[in-house]
């Protein structure tokens, strides 16, 4: 890329400087930052492809241009800023390829407005190429906005303090961040992995001396821009591309047009550093051309610069060796960021160095007194050190920082779930004293008021209500939680325990089964359900009870779902006989196992070629699950093709359409029934309706075309012979699908829940 604008020597300097620049360390060593490096590969690939699509006063070469758009799309999928390469291509087109200057463009515009002349042919071609790229950009941006749900993500004031500041503090601070980023590229000495929170103080006044750096930055940028676009030399073209590569990729992360979730991030400077290294190399070449006998000194200086950058990069890599080392390195540079102190504390906490971790958590709380997470970390660490009193004090300090609850009004403040652990942890601490259970209950109710989907608070609240002897209230609490998180096995287990206490064994067992549906390895539910099965004395369930007890020993299940999963795996490996055995075993254990019944029938039809054996399986499925649409579709298909029972097939498909008139597959297969009867007019009407419901289904359009052709042929034959003729042969096939449901497995959780990690990460 460099050799497109500069000599090989200057390109070598730029490339060498880019290769060793310390600012790249985060993008390469940090997993998150590698998206930047990946995006930059396709960024440069798109730019090189575009350079092949254009030329001075030449026509467009479309293959490279289409390749450009493809590579831009991939670059954007890696990282959003990849889309900015389109702007770089436009700058390249105007000022490098067509060798235009701003004066020439201004003259063309004046002549166009005055009617003296139209657009030159070369400019029309350039506008066409640029317009194609801009259109592509607009489409990609629209797609990106749709993915984001048509709204920007929400960040807290700790992520980016200036984003929540009033005017003009917000604008002054965001503009000041430009020279800060430029200085990191120019002098990458004090590097830090995290620049959020209090790292860079908000500029609240025009008299703040830091505004001077903003003015200097804009002055230099304007001077370079004027020089670059007002001349047409190899050097000016190199400068204009340097600025384009440096400025345009940085704009999405600049905070100037919309706030982002960070103040400064070194990783996002990876792509802009392309342009910076080009600019430094151009500047070095200018000085060298004018140095005369001083070239040797300049060469030594650039060698020293590259060597020092390489040494800094080498040393910086050791900072990224672990969480502890990188956050400790950040504290050497920045003592005003509470998140760094918190994360060093977390790293120490992981290796059980609680006393050392406490020092960092307390420092974080002193640096950022309004950081709720820091106070929670302090309290949790005191609990790990078995120091309840200072832990309670820390939790109460965290709770005091929450926006107040106004009685009679819903809570409007945006609360992080981890922050609510202050209430949960304080309630757990209080509940250790039987005399404070009421206090713990009120704390948990307050947490639920602030965030109604806080399931952990419901679980602990129900546990406390059980201890207080209020089983009905506990049951209502757990049921309310299950509405918030219907896949939480602990909730169903706790409901079952409360129901057992109330002698509601049937309902209790139902909830244990619900828990196992969500987490087949939930050992408490396995045990209790097995005991209930044994106590019920039902011979049909004795085997299942024994299997669950055996599973508790071996951590393996012998319930229907295990056999079903074995069968599905065997199907994937095309071991159909083994799959059949396991399907039949699963159905033996649970005759109503709809997924096992359906997939066994489907395999017998499609893979084993034994459709007659599938019919009783489907009959059993539809007996237990008369609303099983896919079962009706498959049964209808067999009625048409195997049993030749058109009336039965019609009932299958009509049964589906009564429940779901929009089921295109059932409607299409009903159309097939009409074809089988020779009623092509009705079949055509039916297929038209199906095509209107699903205009993108090609097979429906194809079948409609076949039916219409048969109708036309039949009409021609009638005209020729004057007779209706015989019914046409079969022209379309009914459609079937395979059902492969997923089974969720959740981690084991206890009945009582406590928070474990509540700090800033």
TrEMBL record:
It comes from Plakobranchus ocellatus. Residues 150-222 form the DUF1736 domain. InterPro entries: TMTC_DUF1736, TPR-like_helical_dom_sf, TPR_rpt. TPR repeats lie at residues 338-371, 372-405, 455-488, 489-522, 560-593. This is dolichyl-phosphate-mannose--protein mannosyltransferase. Residues 717-761 are annotated as: Disordered. Keywords: Endoplasmic reticulum, Membrane, Repeat, Ribonucleoprotein, TPR repeat, Transferase, Transmembrane, Transmembrane helix. Its EC number is 2.4.1.109. It is a multi-pass membrane protein. It is found in: Endoplasmic reticulum; Membrane. The chain crosses the membrane at residues 126-145, 212-230, 242-262. The keyword Oxidoreductase does not apply. GO terms for molecular function: dolichyl-phosphate-mannose-protein mannosyltransferase activity. Pfam families: TMTC_DUF1736, TPR_19, TPR_6, TPR_8. SMART domains: TPR (SM00028).
